[in-house]
């Protein structure tokens, strides 16, 4: 089944735009595949080092060239809830490899930082760049050329995009991504949000806030709201890098372990040593990328992926743009209401039918490319299923439910929550920006108000605490937050403050060259403004009191001053020295200098 004309048209445009870079990339993939990661290309000294720590059985297997070896790249650490469940995975994967007649080795580890821990802290200014560090670290692990395929253990915000970038850089190898799943449901996200707003108003203390946060983030697994981490899992499944139905199964359950072992064995089955060779670089193509963008919009996913998907696509020689993302959004209905777009969490989404229901609905409506290659085989239709634990302890699958278990959480296309996905590109004399409207009520989508200019989120927080923002409509312009300035941190700490003012009836909005969050919420926010202030962007020319108009309906972002006056203004310089050291920030000076624009993926390579 082919996709709708509108989706086909965007895909064709991406394919034509990417022709030269994609062909060059595929030539490199084919060249590397022809050379092969077969152990016979290694010298005896190379190979001896590569299996020195293995047991006798694995040494004997790796000494020849007929047994596939699986490289494990892991983002395990035991501080972060989402990655702590990965601790036993290498053992499970090695057991599965032996059962399948193969070998598995941990090829390397990559860092995994949590934006939830670093929000509003200096460490947040390393967050976006950690994606590229992860890609580099994974590349080092795979550079030993000992492997016939790789599995990637990572789940959260920058980790998965970094790992996908690495997988595509080693595109001659099959790549399978193995999730760890969301934590079980705790304090409802809307109740947590209310406590945050009460704390911002000074109506409850730190003890009450910490209690609410701890009840929400209470155990192993990803946070249950639909932010970047869970958007990652949706993307990996809808792009065919997960096994079907595996994204949202809770950690430390028999089904989760069975899915992990199955994924390892599938990775071994699709190496060049078998009959189903599926190198990641050929598997992921323009159609796969478009399917990812469709899924992002259909589920109201994270705005961070308007940056990450561009970087991921570029790693495969594919030129994706914000215009492509916006056009797909205009043609894809919103089918999920998961916090911050609704009251439910991802466990409720999964229980209502989850990814299997979503994939089937989108396929039947012609909104996805069905004729893609996946790690499971040809075609996306096999992903329209629900994974369960079979009687023998292995994974069993059955067709996704015909009806949603809860149409307030997961709707069929015929009853979509809204006709578009809610991600829009804003364009005007302030540059280009992204806005996520799916969680913003229609009456708040157009704001025209005087600007109040800040160069750090702490300045806005101080103004709020001092009562300077109480009785006024305004658009907060927070600049010098782009990748070149300070690594493009998320400004999620501002959501409760601006939400309080909006709830009091004030007309408020945010305009920034920084990021907001995978949890971008009810306050209209024009984010990722490009060019950024440090790169000569007009956002650096805004003055206090200038009238600014953010119109998410018309797709415009304007400073309402005469063109001649705006052209004659100088960009206000800011001394950022104090933001370039401490908490490791001095080590990232090269990254800040190399970073591309947000609409080009904000990457350093």
From TrEMBL:
<dbReference type="Pfam" id="PF24877">
    <property type="entry name" value="ILV_EDD_C"/>
</dbReference>
<feature type="binding site">
    <location>
        <position position="223"/>
    </location>
    <ligand>
        <name>[4Fe-4S] cluster</name>
    </ligand>
</feature>
<dbReference type="InterPro" id="IPR042096">
    <property type="entry name" value="Dihydro-acid_dehy_C"/>
</dbReference>
<dbReference type="InterPro" id="IPR004786">
    <property type="entry name" value="6-phosphgluc_deHydtase"/>
</dbReference>
<keyword id="KW-0311">Gluconate utilization</keyword>
<keyword id="KW-0408">Iron</keyword>
<feature type="domain" description="Dihydroxy-acid/6-phosphogluconate dehydratase N-terminal">
    <location>
        <begin position="68"/>
        <end position="380"/>
    </location>
</feature>
<dbReference type="InterPro" id="IPR037237">
    <property type="entry name" value="IlvD/EDD_N"/>
</dbReference>
<protein>
    <recommendedName>
        <fullName>Phosphogluconate dehydratase</fullName>
        <ecNumber>4.2.1.12</ecNumber>
    </recommendedName>
</protein>
<feature type="domain" description="Dihydroxy-acid/6-phosphogluconate dehydratase C-terminal">
    <location>
        <begin position="408"/>
        <end position="602"/>
    </location>
</feature>
<keyword id="KW-0004">4Fe-4S</keyword>
<dbReference type="InterPro" id="IPR000581">
    <property type="entry name" value="ILV_EDD_N"/>
</dbReference>
<comment type="pathway">
    <text>Carbohydrate metabolism; Entner-Doudoroff pathway.</text>
</comment>
<comment type="function">
    <text>Catalyzes the dehydration of 6-phospho-D-gluconate to 2-dehydro-3-deoxy-6-phospho-D-gluconate.</text>
</comment>
<feature type="binding site">
    <location>
        <position position="156"/>
    </location>
    <ligand>
        <name>[4Fe-4S] cluster</name>
    </ligand>
</feature>
<keyword id="KW-0479">Metal-binding</keyword>
<comment type="similarity">
    <text>Belongs to the IlvD/Edd family.</text>
</comment>
<dbReference type="GO" id="GO:0004456">
    <property type="term" value="F:phosphogluconate dehydratase activity"/>
</dbReference>
<dbReference type="Pfam" id="PF00920">
    <property type="entry name" value="ILVD_EDD_N"/>
</dbReference>
<dbReference type="InterPro" id="IPR056740">
    <property type="entry name" value="ILV_EDD_C"/>
</dbReference>
<keyword id="KW-0119">Carbohydrate metabolism</keyword>
<keyword id="KW-0456">Lyase</keyword>
<dbReference type="InterPro" id="IPR020558">
    <property type="entry name" value="DiOHA_6PGluconate_deHydtase_CS"/>
</dbReference>
<keyword id="KW-0411">Iron-sulfur</keyword>
């Amino acid at each position: 089944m082919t996709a709708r004309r509108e989706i086909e048209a965007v895909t064709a445009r991406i394919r034509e735009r990417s022709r030269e870079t994609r062909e060059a990339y595929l030539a490199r993939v084919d060249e590397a595949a022809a050379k092969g990661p077969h152990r016979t290309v290694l010298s005896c000294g190379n190979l001896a080092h590569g299996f020195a720590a293995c047991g006798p059985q694995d040494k004997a297997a790796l000494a020849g060239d007929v047994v596939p070896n699986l490289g494990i790249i892991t983002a395990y650490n035991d501080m972060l809830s989402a990655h702590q469940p990965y601790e036993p995975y290498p053992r499970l994967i090695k057991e599965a490899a032996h059962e399948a007649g193969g070998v598995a080795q941990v090829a390397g580890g990559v860092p995994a930082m949590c934006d939830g821990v670093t929000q509003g802290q200096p460490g947040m200014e390393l967050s976006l760049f950690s994606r590229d560090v992860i890609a580099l670290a994974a590349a080092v692990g795979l550079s030993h050329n000992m492997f016939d395929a790789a599995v990637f253990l990572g789940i959260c915000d920058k980790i998965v995009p970094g790992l996908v970038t690495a997988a595509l850089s080693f595109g001659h190898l099959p790549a399978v991504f193995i999730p760890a799943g969301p934590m079980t449901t705790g304090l409802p996200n809307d109740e947590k949000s209310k406590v945050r707003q009460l704390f911002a108003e000074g109506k409850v203390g730190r003890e009450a806030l910490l209690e609410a946060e701890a009840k929400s983030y209470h155990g192993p697994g990803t946070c249950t709201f639909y932010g970047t981490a869970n958007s990652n899992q949706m993307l990996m499944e809808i792009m065919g890098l997960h096994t079907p139905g595996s994204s949202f199964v809770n950690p430390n359950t028999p089904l989760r372990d069975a899915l992990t072992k199955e994924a390892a064995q599938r990775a071994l089955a699709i190496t060049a040593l078998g009959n189903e060779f599926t190198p990641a670089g050929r598997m992921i193509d323009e159609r796969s990328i478009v399917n990812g963008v469709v899924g992002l919009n259909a589920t109201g996913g994270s705005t961070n992926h308007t940056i990450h998907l561009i970087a991921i696509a570029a790693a495969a020689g594919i030129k994706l743009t914000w215009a492509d993302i916006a056009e797909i959004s205009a043609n894809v209905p919103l089918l999920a209401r998961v916090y911050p777009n609704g009251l439910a969490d991802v466990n409720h989404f999964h229980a209502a039918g989850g990814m299997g229901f979503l994939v089937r609905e989108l396929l039947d409506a012609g909104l996805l490319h069905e004729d893609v290659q996946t790690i499971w085989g040809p075609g996306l239709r096999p992903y329209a299923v629900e994974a369960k634990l079979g009687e023998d302890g292995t994974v069993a699958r059955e067709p996704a439910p015909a009806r949603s278990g809860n149409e307030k959480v997961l709707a069929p296309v015929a009853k979509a929550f809204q006709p578009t996905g809610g991600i829009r590109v804003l364009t005007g004399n302030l540059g280009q920006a992204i806005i996520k409207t799916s969680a913003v009520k229609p009456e708040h989508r157009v704001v025209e108000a005087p600007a109040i200019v800040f160069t750090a989120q702490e300045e806005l927080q101080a103004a709020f605490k001092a009562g300077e923002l109480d009785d006024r409509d305004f658009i907060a312009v927070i600049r010098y937050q782009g990748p070149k300035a300070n690594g493009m941190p998320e400004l999620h700490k501002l959501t409760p403050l601006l939400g309080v003012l909006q709830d009091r009836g004030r007309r408020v909005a945010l305009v920034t060259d920084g990021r907001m969050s995978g949890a971008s919420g009810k306050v209209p926010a024009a984010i990722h403004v490009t060019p950024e202030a440090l790169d000569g962007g007009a956002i650096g020319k805004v003055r206090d009191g200038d009238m600014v108009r953010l119109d998410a309906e018309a797709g415009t972002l304007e400073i309402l001053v005469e063109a001649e006056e705006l052209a004659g203004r100088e960009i206000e310089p800011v001394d950022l020295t104090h933001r370039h050291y401490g908490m490791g920030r001095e080590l990232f000076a090269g990254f800040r200098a190399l970073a591309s624009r947000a609409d080009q993926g904000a990457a350093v390579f």
